[in-house]
Amino acid sequence: MRLVVFSLVFLLAGCTAWRPVPRASVGGPTSGPETVRLLLLDGRQLYIKKASTVGDSLIGRVENARVAFALTDIRRVDTQQPSAGKTRTATGVASGAAVGVGIAAALLALVALAAASLLDGIYGGS
């Protein structure tokens, strides 16, 4: 059961990747995704919730505090987007784990049947 839960969590987490948003799309008055990742010119990296651009600034929330950054201070804005490669990898790992569990269960059943047959032959069965 734990393997199934782990596989599902891994599968769901592996389906997105941080990708840069073109600079032109940051400058317009738009509401962004739930969370964006900012890389500022001074090297800081921040995760901003409920980000949107207003005029020449990007505003949003960091740990429930309102923040604003001048667009000229932002080197890059990334959003989480679907990643086909990660999804394929996660699906392959989850499928492989399920097949592995199935093979292990089948081998265990065969060993149990062989042991029962051997004991039946030794002790004469009932």
Number of DSSP helices?
A: 3
Strand content: 25-35%
The CATH topology of the domain at 17-82, please? SH3 type barrels
Number of strands: 6
Radius of gyration, CA atoms, in whole angstroms? 26 Å
- CATH top level of the domain at 17-82 is Mainly Beta
CATH architecture of the domain at 17-82: Roll
Rounded to the nearest angstrom, the distance between the terminal CA atoms is 36 Å
What is the typical, i.e. mean, pLDDT?
77
Numbering strands along the chain, what is their spatial order in the largest sheet?
A: 1-6-2-3-4-5
The main sheet comes to:
6 strands, antiparallel
**Helix amount:** 40-55%
Name the assembly state.
Answer: single chain
Order of helices and strands: HEHEEEEEH
What best-fitting shape do the alpha-carbon axes yield?
Answer: rod-shaped
Structural class: alpha+beta
Uncertain segments are: none
Task: Explain how this protein is built.
It is a single chain. The chain is α+β, with helices and mostly antiparallel strands and about 130 residues long. The chain has a domain at about 15-80: SH3 type barrels. About 45% of the residues lie in helices and about 35% in strands. The protein contains three helices and six strands. Strands 1-6-2-3-4-5 form a six-stranded antiparallel β-sheet.
